[in-house]
Amino acid sequence: MRGSVIKNINLYKSGEQKIEWVKRNMPVLRSIEERFIKEQPLKNKKIAIAIHLEAKTAYLAKVLKAGGAEVSISSSNPLSTQDDVAAALVKSGMSVYSIHGISEKEYFEHLNMVLDIKPDIIIDDGGDLIQLVHTSRRKLLENIIGGSEETTTGIVRLKSMEKEGVLEFPMISVNDAYSKYLFDNRYGTGQSVWDGIMRTTNLIVAGKNVVVAGYGWCGRGVALKARGLGANVIVTEIDPIKAMEAVMDGFRVMKSVEAAKIGDYFITLTGNFKIFTSEHFKYMKDGAILANAGHFDVEIWKPDLEEMSVEIKEMRKNITGYVMPDGRVINLLAEGRLVNLASGDGHPAEIMDMSFALQALSAEYLAQKAKDLDKKLYNVPMEIDFEVSKMKLMEWGVEIDELTDEQKKYLDSWQ
Ligand code: NAD
Ligand code: SAH
């Protein structure tokens, strides 16, 4: 085992409890672990992971190790590491490079340490590891057989690499599997974003105006749960079809500048940048609460907030108050980083059970098939996608019908 860089090994006890708790609630991944222990599909494979280092990710790392892999791991965000979980992983014999609250520079140092394992497979969340091995760490390309990507923004980056012809190995788009984005992005983000906001602010949502920027899979989930909490939901979009869907789902849709005047909560989920800027901050109410759940901390444009403020102060843990010259305070949660992970535990275990089952099975698929794949972005094979949803239904005790031969024939005939 190689050395690790973590906060404090003595924190391991509560980390172990957290991992044990999620394991009890991740039955699909548990059954994959049982099979991996027997079959050792990842024997002799080295895997570098950068995903939010909390308990569910820790359990994924343990499952890959149980399958025979040597694993090194870091977080995909400087604020989402849980130091007790990192300690528990080191205690279990894993190489971990991750500390909560580090600077951007240290964050990249840790990613580089993860890569020092000279991986065969990369499991990335957002594309930072992939970017490093295609730029400053190109020597590692000799060894890499493939990788997989967890989130929408990472896929956007991979698509532009593929288009420019610079992608150097096959990548699997875990994000685009049906049993990922329909559940993780929608219901996972829907619940965990509100969990993060509510535990950070301890304020009521019912009766408030909630502005959701971006009505993609994540935005839908957040808007749906906001309605369930009794909020008046307003959606902002740039895509006419998504905007129409939001209208038909029963939400108000308007320009972001108009929404800025009436919103109490503003939540960004676009994967884009400069969604709320000085153009909006100048109209916002005193006490407005801003949270981002999209990939980077650029959706709520902090340079404008800083420039406009006469004072910047901590209002409460994880809430920064920007005091405007007229006395209004605009509150930013978790420094504008993903609120559900920087200010909470991220998606629930039952959701990550599916996303990480897809990751584990994609790693197995790469170990077996990478040599037959091109330097392209691939979807998760449909058999794996179906297998994960079937296993989940089985765990829930839900049974569904099967096509009869007669029905198959009917569906296959064009006459
Ligand atoms: P998506 O592509 O389905 O949705 C993004 C939406 O934002 C699109 O409908 C797009 O039209 C809209 N948009 C783009 N620019 C806009 C603008 N200027 N104003 C308003 N709307 C705009 O993507 P998604 O799967 O919903 O993911 C959104 C972001 O959230 C990504 O960055 C993704 O990586 C991240 N993500 C976060 C979590 C989490 O746990 N917080 C989970 C999954 C994905
Ligand atoms: N590098 C990015 C990461 C994007 S986060 C950043 O700047 O933070 C979006 C991804 O986080 C989602 O696709 C989701 O699958 C994942 N996620 C959500 N909750 C999680 C959890 N509890 N543990 C690990 N990953 C989680």
Extract low-pLDDT stretches: none
SS content category? alpha/beta
Largest sheet: 8 strands, mixed
Q: Give the mean pLDDT.
A: 97
Cα-to-Cα separation, first versus last residue: 63 Å
| Heterogens | nicotinamide-adenine-dinucleotide, S-adenosyl-L-homocysteine
Helix content: 40-55%
Descriptive overview:
By secondary structure, the protein is α/β, with parallel strands linked by helices. The chain has two domains: 9-180 and 347-396, Rossmann fold, CATH 3.40.50.1480; 186-342, Rossmann fold, CATH 3.40.50.720. It is 46% helix and 15% strand. It is built from 17 helices and 15 strands. The chain has helices at residues 12-24, 27-39, 55-66, 83-91, 104-115, 128-133, 152-164, 178-201, 217-228, 240-248, 256-262, 278-281, 302-308, 339-342, 349-369, 382-396, 405-412, and strands at residues 46-50, 70-74, 95-96, 121-124, 146-149, 171-173, 209-213, 232-236, 252-253, 265-268, 289-292, 311-316, 319-323, 329-333, 377-379. Strands 9-8-7-10-11-14-13-12 form an eight-stranded mixed β-sheet, with helices on both faces. The chain has a seven-stranded parallel β-sheet with strand order 3-2-1-4-5-6-15, with helices on both faces. α1 crosses α3 and α8 runs antiparallel to α15. It is globular. It binds nicotinamide-adenine-dinucleotide and S-adenosyl-L-homocysteine. S-adenosyl-L-homocysteine (SAH) is lined by residues 51-52, 54, 56-57, 76-77, 125-126, 150-151, 175, 184, 188, 295-296, 338, 341, 345-347, 352, 355.
